[in-house]
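Attaching the record inline, Q. Sequence:
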Amino acid sequence: MRRFTFSMMLALATVAANAKDVLDAPTWTDNLTTTEEAKDLTRAAAMAVDNEGNSIVTGSFTKDLEFAASYLEHVANSAFIAKYDKAGAKKWAAGLAGAATITTVATDADGNVYAAGVFADQVAIKDASGDTKATITGMADKVDKVSGFIVKYDKQGAYVASKTILAESDAEIAALDVIGVLSPSFTAKKLVVDGNKLYLSASYKGNVDLDGVILKGKYACSEGWLYNDETTMCVLSFDAADLANASIVSVLGATEQLTNEATYNTEDVNFAINDGKIYVAYVASGKDMTLTAAGKDTKIETAYEASATEHATEHAYVLAAIDGDQVTTQVYHSVATDNSNTLNTIDEMAYQKGKLYLAGSFNQALPFDNTISYLGGCDAYAACLDAASLSKNWAVASAFDEGDAKHKAEIISGMLVDEDEVTLVGWVENTKDRTIEAPLGYQINTKTPAMQKGEQVLITSVAENGNYALYQTDNVKGSDEDKTTEGTYSYIFYNNAESSGISKVLADDNTIDWDGNEVTLAKSADITVYTAAGAVVKSAKNVKSLSLADAAHGIYLVKVGKQALKIVK
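Structure, as predicted:
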């Protein structure tokens, strides 16, 4: 796969009407308005690109949705799945009419589409014709989206199968819950199809019965009477054909069903698959955890210190490689702190050529390298591990101070991996009201390695398969002012990663930056600026900056030696 650099993301600032006039323009762009208010969009909605270059997009809709020949009527805040072909033509849309959110989507070699998520009450599953093909029912007396679902469509948008996944409190412990705070739930996180199997990572509270396969809930009790659900996370498998034959691939949670002295929670899970081998990564806290994989139990212990007035907790990264009945584990420890606002995550994970790439955020000493600390609320990181041994090759962090440590965080929403570089996208979020305060983009040269802050254009989701790349952004800010604005998803697609064209080549070890008015370089060099038509706009010899404040708005190409950067003014 060709590198995808931050300057590529500048294309998202180009409206679809101008796409044909841009050098190395994307194959297609589109805007899709689906909600009456922007705040009702699903932020970072799941997407996928199949092996033919078709784009599968998902999201929320609160207004009736017309897409190609499909017409979907909404009920409450409903969820849709839509398909574009690789030329950008709309093919079909299907959906879940009711209180539902799609959290993950995947495709297989035959073009079938799988989606999973959460829902409440009753939800009608619609196919591409708009007809109801099945109705799923969530946990009784629950208005929140705490029940799980999986649905499968064929490549034409015809309904194939669906599965409802419900959780319930353990009866004996629920009887002791005198104030009724137990809250069972099941949340789908990531789907991957490998061969004839569909794999799903998820978090759950309470007991989950998967056609006789039981996920056992875990609980904590304090003061002798206050009972709480502990969060457990897992990776499951199903037959891809009909979503039957559930099986547990891996589970990490508290060793004991009920603990009285401390909490033991699994806080995140991600995974990747290559040639039948499954790599799972968890974030966990608690001194007595158990990892179960391939029928084997491995005790996981992380630092936890508690007294009557204070406690310190470590949030470690737990890795497992599962190859048939063989399991290799590796725990990357942090340093126990009293930080109650824990932001250690594994948001992205991918396998490529014998290496595992992971990315997310952290606000303890980075588990992959305890010498790396964070600034502000947290920092973004990327790490590369040897897939065979799970040992660390390298780890880097953003070292970016986003401000208020209690209410600001770096959110990573996408990762693109090339042999020579890793690209991360996301935003700075106010954790109090979930408003987006600034876009983020990072580029890691894997040969150095080093993390560099790139062009800041908001990308909320990324999907690619090595040959095709799809980017998404939206108009959600999270503030009250968005209540008067319809919600719109924006997409940009490249059907050939090798010729995506909007590149920032690092061949001669210089750095080109653009702040909206001025081009700046890390070291002095000759600068030439061209229009989209190839005409020279400005040039300068042996300088470190060049102002374009007097240039007209438009798209330009900046060339510095062997490097080039597409900019939008």
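Confidence is low (pLDDT under 50) at residues 1-24, 497-508. The domain at 505-569 is CATH 2.60.40 (Immunoglobulin-like).

More tomorrow.
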